[in-house]
């Protein structure tokens, strides 16, 4: 019942738009600050690795191993991916373009930050992003998704004869 309300209701559409625009602005501005102000994830990654020790570690060992074995040696890659990802997620959410994908990628980043022992606003952002993902197209209806999703659906429907949807239908 709540799922269908999120996915179909006009009041939900407006509420989701407010949430989407707020999150988009937050992600975009944080990403832009990192893109223009110089960003180095090395300290953050090292700090997360340090939180894997002690009696009550804030970071799980498996995540710390990933950070130590992959993220820290490739910090240059993360110095580009994190700000660019934050900025693009923000633009997607702000404009309502590929909203579900943008919210899903925001969730991936928030989970990464949470796994690294940083709580901050990540938990509440994650909760909002879950609502956007569950709402699907309704979250971006007041945005460019209204046209983008229609265009993308049309692209895939043109190939209907090549890739039949009905499994009982035989390909000639």
UniProtKB/TrEMBL annotation:
Keywords: Membrane, Transmembrane, Transmembrane helix. GO terms for cellular component: membrane. The chain crosses the membrane at residues 12-28, 62-82, 87-111, 123-144. Signal peptide: none annotated. Its main location: membrane. It is found in: Membrane. It is a multi-pass membrane protein. InterPro entries: DoxX. This is DoxX family membrane protein. The lineage of its organism: Bacteria, Bacillati, Bacillota, Bacilli, Bacillales.
């Amino acid at each position: 019942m709540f799922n269908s309300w999120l996915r179909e209701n006009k009041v939900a559409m407006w509420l989701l738009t407010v949430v989407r625009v707020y999150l988009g602005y937050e992600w975009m501005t944080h990403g832009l600050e990192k893109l223009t102000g110089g960003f180095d994830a090395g300290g953050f990654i090292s700090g997360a690795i340090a939180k894997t020790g002690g009696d009550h570690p804030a970071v799980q060992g498996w995540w710390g191993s990933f950070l130590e074995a992959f993220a820290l040696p490739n910090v240059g890659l993360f110095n580009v991916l994190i700000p660019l990802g934050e900025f693009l997620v923000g633009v997607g959410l702000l404009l309502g373009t590929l909203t579900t994908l943008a919210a899903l990628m925001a969730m991936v980043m928030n989970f990464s930050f949470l796994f690294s022992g940083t709580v901050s606003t990540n938990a509440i952002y994650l909760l909002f992003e879950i609502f956007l993902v569950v709402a699907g197209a309704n979250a971006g209806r007041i945005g460019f998704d209204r046209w983008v999703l229609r265009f993308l659906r049309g692209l895939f429907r043109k190939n209907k004869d090549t890739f039949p949807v009905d499994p009982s239908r035989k390909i000639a």
